[in-house]
Predict the structure.
Amino acid sequence: MHRAPISVSAAALTLALAAAGCGGSDDDPDTITVAYQDYGAFQAAHSLFEKVKEEFEAENPGTTVELRPIEAPPEDYQAQVNLMNQSPSEAPDIIYEDTFTINQDVDAGYLLPIDDYWDAWPDAEQYNDRADAGVTALDGSRYGVMLGTDTRGLWYNTALLEQAGVEVPWEPETWDDVLEAARAVRAEHGDAVAPLNLYSGTPAGEMASMQGFQMLLSGTGDALYDEESREWITGAPGFLDSLEFVRTVYTEDLGLDPQDALNPTVSTINNEERFPSGELAISLEGSWATQSWIESANQPWPEWSDTMAFAAMPTRDGGDPGTTSMSGGWALSLGAASTNPDLAWEVMAHALNLENATKFAVEGAQIPLRGDVAASEEFTASDPNPDLATELVDVTHFRPAYGEYPRVSLAIQEAMEAVMLGDATPEEAAATYAQEVEGIVGADNVRQGG
């Protein structure tokens, strides 16, 4: 399969698989299939696996590394991989896996524990504890190796803010500071510039719930889930405050036009078009945004470092620790249906070696989890991450990595969308969310916040 667009419906996905020739490798033990996301501005995985295929096949005559790039945003990518995993003949040997989906895929029986491979792998000592936590499931076993991680904050165009009278370098200390800067941009630049991008609504998917809503919620002192009591939280003041921030952005015309904000490719358009053309001033975005601008990008923007800067997202009122972030990360995992997991592990380990892990970290604008990558001359000379993005690891938060989370995430997206479009007040949207969560996880697994 080569970059075949997919539909979100199960029927269309199944047809797409068949039409694209995405069936398995007839269980050939010498053929290792690799499924990965190849979408929008993100090209690092495709570039990595093309290199791995060429190298591994040259070093191991008779072995085939079959690449299955999937051109789809995260939610649709996961849906297609799930369909592949439901058929042993189509299930990939190696899966490019968003770490927050590991527990649900373990529950579904899609992943193979790799503890024995990990324990025997000399490179394992290069990884830090955060890399362990991201791929260890609730059953205590390891189900992958992380390629890298990230943080989130406020990317901004220094010239646009300066022209609006906002002091640069910009260091907002509260949510009000963020909103005031956006208001200044609107007043100075009018409709020519979108002041603030805040991902919101169901088309944005996980971007809305994670780097939109949860970036706000994490700065309020409240959370979606109580890890100690193992309960989902509804009705917390911070949840309502976060929706109120969304309402302010869209009712005051401080964000993108709702039609543009609800475009599923909004992130790619923002980073490849709106920022380089000076049509966007601020975006609550991931540290990896630089992958859209570096030399190996689809549309390189050599001047980005003279134009763009990165600020930490403040907590709501500037309370401790003052700033906040959300982190995620992608891993490589072994498929449970693999007919030759030993060979699949060899391919996976090759993709994760020092040279290839460094390549992925640079091209994917990742924060490395291998110590030797982070210290390598190649990475330090090419590191596209702002220093602050790496420092935010100290204050970062993570999504609840449980099987129910994707449905809870969708409920968050729906609440945001209702508020941004004026179909519900923050109070109404929060109440609907509470009802949906109770239906998803059961009343006994929910507690009232506040």
Residues 1-24 have pLDDT under 50 and may be disordered. The domain at 152-326+401-448 is CATH 3.40.190.10 (D-Maltodextrin-Binding Protein; domain 2). The first strand starts at residue 31 and ends at 37. The CA atoms of residues 63 and 404 lie 39 Å apart.
